[in-house]
Design goal:
Elements: H1 4-21, E1 25-32, E2 35-42, E3 45-52, E4 57-62, H2 70-83
Antiparallel strand pairs: 1-2, 2-3, 3-4
Length: 85
């Protein structure tokens, strides 16, 4: 994965494309002035992935709630999406 805001934009587009390919319900919203959030709605889970202006990514998974680092969180979300195919 690339770094910086251009890399973050590519990661955002890659995530949305993956969700679209797999028919996963998701919403894109401006969660705050310096971030875009992708809300991912699976039958038994709710994920929020925030792409921040400074280049950081924040991933939260609800049910079960446990903190995830951004890289691990995106990897686990992609694996979870693949399980729903």
């Amino acid at each position: 994965m690339t770094s910086g805001s251009g890399g973050q934009f590519a990661r955002l587009l890659d995530l949305i494309a993956e969700l679209d390919r797999n028919g996963v319900v998701h919403q894109l919203q401006a969660s705050r002035p310096d971030a875009l959030m992708v809300r991912v709605l699976l039958p038994d889970q709710h994920w929020e992935v925030e792409f921040l202006l400074g280049g950081a990514v924040r991933v939260e998974r609800f049910d079960p709630a446990e903190p995830l680092d951004p890289v691990e969180g995106l990897r686990r979300l992609t694996e979870t999406i693949a399980d729903y195919r």
